[in-house]
């Protein structure tokens, strides 16, 4: 996904909906922070609006977040100021940014490493930024079949919106690291002891936020403004109905089926 796409409406959508996304992703944030307990200097790759970086800074001496999105980095810096956090943030492409050599004890990422245009080069660069013996801990999505919640929109809206964008499975995007063999080929040239551990976490949101969620994020959000009103209304109705199996009273609940990529510098 081009970096420019995160510096326009898409990045701003993440900023506007920061509280909703923070709440949804909290279990994933906790898993990452716990995975590097004891690390004193931590780099958070694809940090977004900074929730995980700030959580890391509560335990570490230094936590640095990096992201290509200027709107999200600005929001992350504002968050750190508001919370009196020591977390710092860099607006840069982690694939090529000149980090301090061996400057970190651990590198973490919550769904941030799946979008690199050249993943082997990116992981090599992150390795150079990590001290010998340092840890890599990255959460990425497993297969679409393991994450049916993530494909509801495209499956329900696809018949109504023929041009609905769908990322090829081998392209940068949310399922780019679903295949463990692909991940090992990418990471192993620059890191040692590469392993993938399945992680399944229960996520949820308020039911009242569901329509706003799938019309703001995901494939329907990318084409919503180009649709005529009747088509848009039919698509929203179809997608909302397709999410019904996940609705539990006033909450929407689903399982995030992830890999935790672990490796050693």
TrEMBL record:
CDD domains: AdoMet_MTases. GO terms for biological process: methylation. It holds the Pfam family Methyltransf_25. The keyword RNA-binding does not apply. The keyword Cell membrane does not apply. Residues 42-134 form the Methyltransferase domain. SUPFAM superfamilies: S-adenosyl-L-methionine-dependent methyltransferases (SSF53335). It comes from the Bacteria. Keywords: Methyltransferase, Transferase. One of its GO terms (molecular function) is methyltransferase activity. PANTHER family: 2-METHOXY-6-POLYPRENYL-1,4-BENZOQUINOL METHYLASE, MITOCHONDRIAL, METHYLTRANSFERASE. This is Class I SAM-dependent methyltransferase. The lineage of its organism: Bacteria, Bacillati, Actinomycetota, Actinomycetes, Cryptosporangiales.
